[in-house]
Amino acid sequence: MSIEKQEEIKQRSYAEAMRYMSNAKETLQKARKMDNYYADSKYVRTACGTAYNGVLLALDTYLELKGVEMPQKKRRSIAFYTSNIAKLDGKLLVRLETVYSVLHLDGYYDGSRDAIVVKRGFDNAYDIIDRIKPNQVIELPPAKHPILRRIVSYFF
């Protein structure tokens, strides 16, 4: 795969993953933080699930760029990600395990309202997404209308 094609894939996937993270942060603000806890677990669950999906998108791109054979089915198990990433990067594996535990299990399934724990999950999510950051990031102004967001994300 050419470097230009890799950069194009990174550009598209990075923008999409960051859009997921932006949506997750926006949703998390609706949970209203009081002291070190969120008041509404419904928004925490939604935000954590959205952030986790952004991480999976970034991981798919990372593995594709590393030449890992991707299974045909769209839904991949955490075992697929951990086994393949363990072969490539031990530090990334630790971050993935943290994101899986904090965002997917504790945040999404259990609705953990602990703001410090959720922040740790988000920090690790950003670190994973940064692995596919292109050399030159094209910053797009946020689209306010949902249809405009879809159009912008389609092209970038």
Number of strands: 2
Radius of gyration: 16 Å
Count of discrete alpha- or pi-helical segments spanning 4 or more residues = 6
Instruction: Give the strand line-up of the largest sheet.
Output: 1-2
Form type:
globular
**Biggest sheet features:** 2 strands, antiparallel
CATH superfamily: Nucleotidyltransferases  domain 2
Write the CATH architecture name. Up-down Bundle
Give the averaged pLDDT, no decimals: 89
Helicity, as a percent range: 55-70%
What's the quick description here?
With 156 residues, the chain is mostly helical. The chain has one domain: Four Helix Bundle (Hemerythrin (Met), subunit A) (Up-down Bundle), CATH 1.20.120.330. Helix 1 runs antiparallel to helix 5, helix 2 packs antiparallel against helix 4 and helix 2 packs parallel to helix 5.
Could you explain the architecture of this structure?
The protein has 156 residues and is mainly alpha-helical. The protein has one domain (3-155): Nucleotidyltransferases  domain 2 (Four Helix Bundle (Hemerythrin (Met), subunit A), Up-down Bundle). Helix content is 69%, strand content 3%. It has helices at residues 3-29, 41-65, 78-88, 90-109, 115-129, 146-155; strands spanning 33-34, 37-38. Strands 1-2 form a two-stranded antiparallel sheet. Strand 1 (33-34) and strand 2 (37-38) form a beta hairpin.
